[in-house]
Prior knowledge:
The structure holds 2 protein chains of 2 kinds. By secondary structure, chain A is mainly alpha-helical. Chain A has a domain of about 90 residues: Rna Polymerase Sigma Factor, Chain: A (Orthogonal Bundle), CATH 1.10.1740. Chain A contains 7 helices and no strands. The longest helix of chain A is centred in the N-terminal third of the chain and has 31 residues. Chain B has a single domain, classed as outer membrane lipoprotein receptor (LolB), chain A (Clam), CATH 2.50.20. In chain B, strand 12 and strand 13 form a beta hairpin. Chain B is of the alpha+beta class. Chain B is elongated, with a radius of gyration of 23 Å. Chain B has an 11-stranded antiparallel beta sheet, covered by helices on one side. The relative contact order of chain B is 0.18. Chains A and B meet through helix 1, helix 2, helix 4 and helix 7 of A and helix 1 and helix 4 of B.
Amino acid sequence: xxxxxxxxxxxxxxxxMQSERNDLxxxxxxxxxxxxxxxxxxxxxxxxxxxxxxxxxxxEDLKGYIYRSLTNSCTSVLRSRRQFATTETLDNLSSDDLxxxxxxxxxxxxxxxxxxxxxxxxxxxxxxIYGGRQFDEIASICNIPLxxxxxxxxxxxxxxxxxxxxxGLI
Amino acid sequence: MKTNNNLDNSSDNRVENLLSPRFTPTTSxxxxxxxxxxxxxxxxxxxxxxAAMVAxxxxxxxxxxxxxxxxxxxELAIMxxxxxxxxxxxFTARVTKSTDPHxxxxxxxxxxxxxxxxxxxxxxxxxxxxxxxxxxxxxSMEFYDGESYRRYQNGQLVLERPDKGVDLTPLxxxxxxxxxxxxxGMLLKFREEGDTIIVSDxxxxxxxxxxxxxxxxxxxxxxxxxxxxxxQVTVLTVDQIDFDVPPTE
Lengths: 170, 249
């Protein structure tokens, strides 16, 4: 009986990870700036969750739990390589930088923009744009009210718009 | 006011467009629920063989190339591994007779006597054949030819059934190996400690460690251990691996 419950939960987890894999990978990619590291982080997450076996049944919102765990994992990776200290500012941003030609340039641009925002706003924007999450899902992942999730997104976009307009970039 | 809002919306759209991903890399990630762990020995042998092959391939990889990181070494080594036609892995395992008629042996506990054996893997065109030979009283041999499983004891065929056998596709590259390993509940880690490169995996029940020397260009050892009755017990040791060997009987 225990084995049956465990198999059922592992199947539930695998199916969810499979259906969400592109969103999970994209979120991790644009958080870490590396496809290889994104692969590793998502795989590592799957293995860690797999080890919970039958206890996965106790997690009501498994999808939200997966994304929450992923954001934490990415933060840990970034801390370990001190990524936060090396992000460039917008001061020397040119119009060429606004038209990236590959993933690396695109990631650098996004990181520079995100660096202008408080963490709680940039996180909502990342989950929305790169994780492909709806606002109610973001509210659940971040453990905040739905209205707060929406307003953080709104304030974040407003702040970026103002910063870009001030520099004549949009 | 309305105009301002429209202007803001237009600007907001530009901001969101700037943030929208256009160059997202692709991923080969794939998730499948693991099959019930009914055949621990089979899994352990296959896992250890894979780990050991990677380790040996790395030895070959570092013998002629100046590389810096373990990852670079492994990437190169796996490319070379894909070119080899056969491997012969000599191992020692603690085994007892399986209670499952599908399996010959199981790795059960630390009290079981160590038994030696070999795993021979041979690529023949698109087919991969594998033979596990045991140094037991019955000189047992298990043979997978990609279509069936056959078991011989004392030179006689005692069991035959359909079986897809072993798939070496994951060994074509590190990127293919990782999702395959993950599907088996493994996350291969490559790290360097001084002169030693370590390929390791630790899942909840099985741990694999393969060590090899960079400077000497040789395998130092590979082993697979499991947690039994609260104790970590080495259940399988890879003693030697031969590359591109002529077919054995």
